[in-house]
Amino acid sequence: MNLRQSRRSFLKTTALTAAALGFPAVSYRRVLGANDALRVAVVGFNGRGADHIAGFLKVPGVRLAALCDCDQKVLDGAVKKLKEQGHDVKGYRDVRDVIADKDIDIISTATPNHWHALITVWACQANKDVYVEKPVSHNVWEGRKAVEAARHYKRVVQTGTQSRSSTGIREAVAWVKEGHLGKIKISRGLCYKPRASIGKTTGPQSIPDGMDYNLWCGPAPMGPLTRKKLHYDWHWVWETGCGDLGNQGIHQMDIARWFLGEQELSPRVLSVGGRLGYDDDGTTPNTQIIWHGYEKAPLIFEVRGLPKDKPSQSEWGKNMDKFMGAQIGVVVHCEGGYVLVPDYSGAIAFDKEGKEIKRWKEAKDHYQNFVDAVRSRQIEDLNADILQGHLSSALCHTGNISYRLGKKQAPGAIREQLKSSADLQETFDRMVEHLKKNEVGIDTDQITVGVGLKMDPATERFIGNADADKLLTRDYRKPFVVPETV
Predict the structure, then answer these.
(1) From CA 250, how far away is CA 189, in angstroms rounded?
(2) CA-wise closest residue to 112 among 130, 131, 138
(3) Separation of alpha carbons 261 and 370, rounded Å
């Protein structure tokens, strides 16, 4: 079957609404028996998607039935390898074609961020369950649409925030909630992860052989490639990525919110930072503070892509800062001590003097949890339902919106604006010290202070700031449009 014929079949059978691509609703739904194998298609596997393949191959009662990637070389290589291992997998280049395949039960996607929500909505409309990588969206609005699609079509949608399947962290959250350390004062996320320069180009770059660039861009603008690498470095430009806040940081943002127990977006947000220490083709910050003003306690997030100091830049990643024992983790400051979450599977409680008083350590398989929920058809069985993924992803997005609307200012002027929060000012002072150790001249390479934003959590829209509201969504490139009505 050629692509044109396949696309025609898709128009007839897939559940895409007129608001999306003008297609009629799907009429099929496979009824699963208790012993029927669930057939999974993995979409996008040149990076994180390789873990999806390995993960689902280990789950009993699941068959990897298809792979989809718009890079022909990547697709052919993976299909060949799996067939040599005895797995009868189909290969698809266009995600619309694999969604149209009535023999597929589950879509598991690890494409770049700008595709996550649209694939989720389309798959739900086609009555398929979904495992979607973090962040679940590229903007706030489309993340909410993914939630609406999951609920409307009664689909099971798991988010790739695997820390939610840690029984150790879950028990620590419950223990703090019981009041063993008193009230939470700050829930702090940390992403101190080495991010070297991606280089500086002088003009449009060539698209890799075998890549369907139209499909790769999808909902995003199809402009020329203006960085050295198409793959992975898409994280560091706004059109397709969300910076390390939405890349690595979404995991720690989710845990920090989990401890607070918040089930809405924060009513206030402010971000400070910049892309500092080098001049390259990236546009997202490599140094950033995000403050979410929840009523119970603030959520403060820190991103550092530069190493501990200038000498450490000769060997990126071998000498990164830590804060209270965490490099990429969470610290929950409480009245009677603190809880450290140093990884994805455990937590440690300390008293005021820093003495360890309790430890938790255990994690279950995130893919298995998803498959169990697909069989039970109970979203309550999911450890990381799409709603939780949306809220934590959206906290990253609103922080980035504050930053993108901001202006560069001198350190003294920034401190003046932060003086109402001693915790935020202390965090900023540590950021400044870190930059100085990396020989960043913050009086010349100035830090950007974002716009302080107020939000109505019920509507997920900002109050009194039309410019910020515009960044809650994007102009979608037809036909890759997230539908207004799912």
Answers:
(1) 9
(2) 138
(3) 22
**Spacing of C-alpha 287 from chain mean position:** 18
| Number of structural domains the chain divides into | 2
- Domain-embedded: residue 478: no
**Amino acid type, 469:** D
Q: How does DSSP assign 199-216, residue by residue?
A: ---SSPBPPPTTB-HHHH
Q: How far out from the chain centre does Cα 328 lie? A: 15
Q: Do 128 and 208 belong to one domain?
A: no
Rg (alpha carbons) of the chain, rounded to whole number: 22
Of 193, 384, 424, 185, the closest CA to residue 301 belongs to 424
- The pLDDT assigned to 180 comes to 98
pTM (two decimals): 0.93
97 inside domain: yes
Indicate the length of the chain as a whole number: 486
Sign of CA pseudo-dihedral 402, 249, 379, 142: positive
DSSP 258-309: HHHT--S--SEEEEEEE--SS--S--S-SEEEEEE--SSS-EEEEEE-S-SS
Instruction: Indicate left, alpha or beta for 210 from its phi (over 0: left) and psi (-120 to 50: alpha).
Output: left
pLDDT number for residue 281: 98
Residues 6 or more apart whose Cβ sits within 8 Å of residue 5? none
Pair (322, 436) in one structural domain: yes
Domain contains 250: yes
Cα separation, 219 vs 205, whole angstroms: 20
Check whether residue 331 and residue 188 sit in a common domain: yes
151 and 254 part of one domain: no
Task: Report residue 58: phi and psi, to 5°.
Answer: -90, -15
Q: Based on the domain organization, do 150 and 19 belong to the same domain?
A: yes
Rounded CA gap, 186 and 139, in Å?
Answer: 26
Task: Using CB atoms within 10 Å of the CB of residue 203, give its burial: 0 to 12 exposed, 13 to 18 middle, 19+ buried.
Answer: exposed
In angstroms, the CA 94 to CA 69 distance is: 7
Helix (H, G, I), strand (E, B) or coil at 409: strand
If asked whether residues 407 and 300 sit together in one domain, one would say: yes
Is residue 479 domain-resident?
no
Q: Which residue segment(s) compose the domain that 143 sits in? A: 3-163
156 and 174 both lie in a single domain:
no
Q: According to DSSP H, which parts of 345-479 are helical?
A: 366-376, 386-404, 411-418, 422-437, 466-470
Instruction: Give the tens place of pLDDT for each residue, 70-111.
Output: 999 999 999 999 999 999 999 999 999 999 999 999 999 999
Residues of the chain with pLDDT under 50: 1-6, 8-28
DSSP-derived letter for residue 316 is T
Cα 438–chain centre separation = 28
